[in-house]
């Protein structure tokens, strides 16, 4: 007898704000059970409440952990899996940065960016594999950045960490393929996204950090994460801007460097609310409220032609493919609800991604 398909479960690190929160909201709106991981319990509870408000009936669980601490991260994943069931998708979206000339960035700040942005992704991937390999199924999504194609001035720690994420993901993807594993690994390369990242990054420039135009809305990145998670792995360049950037680097590294150098990195980009900045979260969680968007909403693009074309192509391909055969599912054995997790009820499938007002706070 074929049993009903179990609800799918996604776990997202950095899930209390920015791309992580936006992705969680989108997955919940499509009927997924959502697990959130970040450092601050209050912000996690707030994020859970927001998702429940945006998608009534959503099933959300959370557990606090610092992604740079592998043992704490593994414990958080076990608590979420005990509440929601087997993990189908794991998204590594946690990251931070420091803004300033390399000589002005203290060694401990540089090291911390590497520990969270790169090693946090490594830790998350290792934990995810421990849940997925025994079942030989699942997808991991590592949120990378367009800076991997050519590093940008004033963000040496972040550029280096994201470049390491890409190389690590490429190596592991090939390892999984050679081993015949059905676990998939996707890497997403977004452009500058209007998240609270720029309010939370420490700045040594005398003013807060800012994105390099063109800037895109958080929902564009969330849609990219969802596409990457449900598309079978591989590398995904999120927008036409990122595609063009990567092609220029392939044609001429010198030309790419010249174009990057012409960007006005050392000036302050106007914010919707100048008072929103300067809430660093490198060594401790920010005390601001939980939000998805940063302070550049008036400059952010809300859609991507590349994503629209991908959506149309996927819809066409799905319409032309025969329906897949159902396979018997394994019974899910859950332990009692673990302390430190908060959950609700399952989300109805097909709800629209919410449109909360842009906020002046960050993650």
Low-confidence stretches: 326-363
CATH architecture annotation name: 3-Layer(aba) Sandwich
CATH topology: Rossmann fold
**Separate helix tally:** 10
Rg over CA atoms: 20 Å
Kindly state the mean pLDDT as a whole number?
A: 83
Q: What would you call the shape? A: globular
Helix content: 25-40%
Main β-sheet description: 7 strands, parallel
Work out the count of structural domains. Answer: 1
- The CATH homologous superfamily name equals NAD(P)-binding Rossmann-like Domain
Q: Assess the beta-strand content as a share of residues.
A: 5-15%
Number of β-strand runs = 12
Give the termini distance in whole angstroms. Answer: 47 Å
GO molecular function: oxidoreductase activity
Pfam families: adh_short (PF00106)
Protein name: SDR family NAD(P)-dependent oxidoreductase
Organism: Lichenicola cladoniae
Overview of this structure, please?
With 363 residues, this protein is of the alpha/beta class. The chain has a single domain, classed as NAD(P)-binding Rossmann-like Domain (Rossmann fold). Helix content is 40%, strand content 13%. It is built from 10 helices and 12 strands. A 7-stranded parallel sheet has the order 3-2-1-4-6-7-11, sandwiched between helices. Strands 8-10-12 form a 3-stranded parallel sheet. A two-stranded parallel ribbon has the order 5-9. α2 (41-54) links the parallel β2 and β3. The longest helix has 26 residues, at 107-132. Mean pLDDT is 83; it is low at 326-363.
Briefly say what this structure is.
It is built from 10 helices and 12 strands. It is α/β, with parallel strands linked by helices. Residues 326-363 have low confidence and may be disordered.
